[in-house]
Amino acid sequence: MKRQATSVMVGALALSMSSFGVAQAADLIFLTGMGPESGVRALAAGFEKATGHKVTVSFETGPTLDQKLASNAPADLIASGPEAVEDLIKKGKVIAGTNTPFGLAPLGVSVKAGAPKPDISTIEAYKASLLKAKSIGYSRGCSGNYAADGIAKLGLADQLKSKIKLTCGGPVAESVAKGEVEFGIQQTNVMVGVAGSDYIGPLPAGVNKSCPFNVGLMANSKNEILALAMIKYMTGPSAPALLAPAHMDPARN
Known about the structure:
By secondary structure, the protein is of the alpha/beta class. It folds into 2 domains: 5-104 and 212-250, Periplasmic binding protein-like II (D-Maltodextrin-Binding Protein, domain 2, 3-Layer(aba) Sandwich), CATH 3.40.190.10; 107-202, Periplasmic binding protein-like II (D-Maltodextrin-Binding Protein, domain 2). It is built from 11 helices and 11 strands. It has helices at 5-17, 37-51, 62-70, 82-90, 123-132, 142-153, 157-160, 172-177, 188-191, 224-234, 239-243; strands spanning 28-32, 55-59, 77-80, 100-105, 107-112, 136-139, 164-167, 183-187, 197-202, 211-217, 249-250. Strand 1, helix 2 (37-51) and strand 2 form a beta-alpha-beta unit. Helix 1 (5-17) crosses helix 10.
């Protein structure tokens, strides 16, 4: 039987009015990919502290996520790009009406640890550093598309075409650390802290477009009311302070 999000929203509101408290302890399983992971972990820790309910954050690559979704493995929430969550709604994996924006991840630049730090403080400086770089790496997906859009906006797409390397798998900063690319561009929250690389800073305004991330309620959740309470928490007044150390911004209304 198809469940409607509205039928459990009432319960979620009642839960939030009692400070998220329920008589019986319950745990949540939260699926996430690399993009929103830092924000999900920060918000999960805050929710645990506020409610006493454990949130297990399960990091998933594309293949492992596909396997879990196909087998209907236990899960309560999932974080991904808005289009991906909407696609899961169409497939019956996520409850309609729960696709909720919660975070934004701006782009930044990393280089190999100890390498000279390029100037990216202004549009002109960023443009000059791109032209000077021997190789430029970014990933497929949102951050890669936005990086390419920024380069095109600067009128450098043709000039830099031979320097561009699309990375796959882990963070772009890992490719930077291995010396596979000199100048790496990706979401700041994914790049910061990668061993063997130095994070330089954010792209300048005008070419720095943030990747959006949403959360949705899994159709096979066994803890719908608590999961919806967490969605409410992820978009509530506590979220900005929790997301900031995770190098993410709250979603804009």
